[in-house]
Amino acid sequence: MRALFLFCFVVGFLGPAHADARTKPLAPGVAWLPGEFVPGRQPDGNSLLIEAPQGLLVFDTGRSERHAQRLLSALRAHERPLLFIVNSHWHLDHIGGNAALKKAFPGAKVVASAAIGAARKGFLARYRQQIEQRLPTLPADAAERASLDHELEIIDAHEASTPDITIDHAGPQRMAGRELIVGLAPHAATAGDVWLYDPAAKVLAAGDLVTLPAPLFDTACPASWTQALEQLATIDFEWLVPGHGAPMRRLGFEIYRKAYGRLLRCAASDADKPQCIDGWLHDAGSLFPPEDHRLARGLLDYYLDQHLRKPEAQQRLGCPDS
Questions:
Q1: Residue 287 gets which letter from DSSP?
Q2: Given this model, what pLDDT does residue 203 score?
Q3: How far apart are the C-alpha atoms of 115 and 87, rounded to whole Å?
Q4: Selection from 62, 89, 64 nearest residue 219 by Cα
Q5: SS3 232
Q6: How far apart are CA 297 and CA 14, in angstroms?
Q7: Are 67 and 47 contacting, i.e. CB atoms less than 8 angstroms apart?
Q8: Taking Cα atoms as reference points, which of 98, 149, 96, 155 lies closest to residue 125?
């Protein structure tokens, strides 16, 4: 059970302070809704709200009902229809608000990769089974019970998270009258990570191809992830919005990309685990607040043992067959 519940455990005991969850403008027509790390529950990923001539777009919808309601409040303030929901990937902290948004805006189309299909048969099926085994052990009034019930609701909301438009290659897309570029990174943080670039605003939504305070390797193929970061480096962005953490300028992304490469090289070497963790904090620590350093250590302590130095886990969860 530890693998699937680890992120909740680490956040619950090591998590940083709440993020300010009000939308924040990044560029004309583009606003960021920060995700949150809340002690004792699973995190929310970042969301973007994009205005277009014909309506609105949302990139990722978080996990919690709280995040979804904040998205809905921001959308309703515009008094325009939501036309597209772009999901970067199938992790629950990026699709959890889909059902609430689709209920409020039934005409909204989901744009995503096809990777959620395999995830429902594999990772999410195992996670669901673990939740079902865990629930009978909890008191009826346990806060964890409500959280796990919500996890099941997200997993079972197939219609809300099944793509109406499936992304299988990178290219220009006109959504709601706005010219965008949608990309696909196969076998990176997941089997299919969608990114979105707005050339007019020069804002790049990267999903979990970039995460702070550490890369999240639960379903990742680390080597292919490196290639995805190299692809993002070719894009002429001014702001990059990660899946978790604050938006960054190009210099911040280059720091992240180089730190990621050094982390993988350290993991592949004979260096002690603390040396690799210290190296990440030295290289990338300026990108997130000092109070998040403990969380970064906890995450990397786990990922180095269970993923980066365990090739069979990479093949089982994220990497294509060799």
A1: G
A2: 98
A3: 11
A4: 89
A5: helix
A6: 10
A7: yes
A8: 155
Statement: residue 214 has pLDDT above 90? yes
**How does residue 315 score in pLDDT terms, banded at 50, 70 and 90?**
low
Q: What is the DSSP letter of 307?
A: I
Residue 56: strand pairing partners:
51, 82
Nearest to 242 by CA among 46, 67, 50, 93: 46
Edge-to-edge strands, sheet with 165-166? 24-27, 30-33, 47-52, 55-59, 82-86, 109-112, 165-166
Question: What is the maximum span of the chain, computed from C-alpha positions, in angstroms?
Answer: 57
* 207 to 9, 71, 81: CA distances (angstroms): 22, 17, 23
Annotate 128-141 with DSSP letters as a single string: HHHHHHHGGGS-TT
pLDDT-derived band at 18, boundaries 50, 70, 90: very low
From CA 99, how far away is CA 64, in angstroms rounded?
Answer: 11
In the structure encoding, which two tokens stand for residue 164, read together?
A: 């109406």
Amino acid at 278: D
Phi, psi of 199 (to 5 degrees): -65, -35
Instruction: Give bridge partners of residue 166 from the DSSP assignment.
Output: 112
| Amino acid in the structure at residue 29 | G
Q: Considering the chain, what percentage of its residues have pLDDT values greater than 90?
A: 84
Residue 53: the pLDDT is 97
DSSP-based three-state secondary structure for 174? strand
SS3 298: helix
CB atoms within 10 A of CB 38: 18
pTM to 2 decimal places: 0.93
Cα separation, 321 vs 221, whole angstroms = 11
What is the total residue count of the chain? 322
3-state helix, strand, coil split of the chain in percent (to 5) is 45, 20, 35
Question: pLDDT tens digits, residue range 155-205?
Answer: 999 999 999 999 999 999 999 999 999 999 999 999 999 999 999 999 999
Question: Under a CB-based contact definition with an 8 Å cutoff, are residues 216 and 7 in contact?
Answer: yes
Distance from C-alpha of 97 to C-alpha of 70, rounded to nearest angstrom: 10
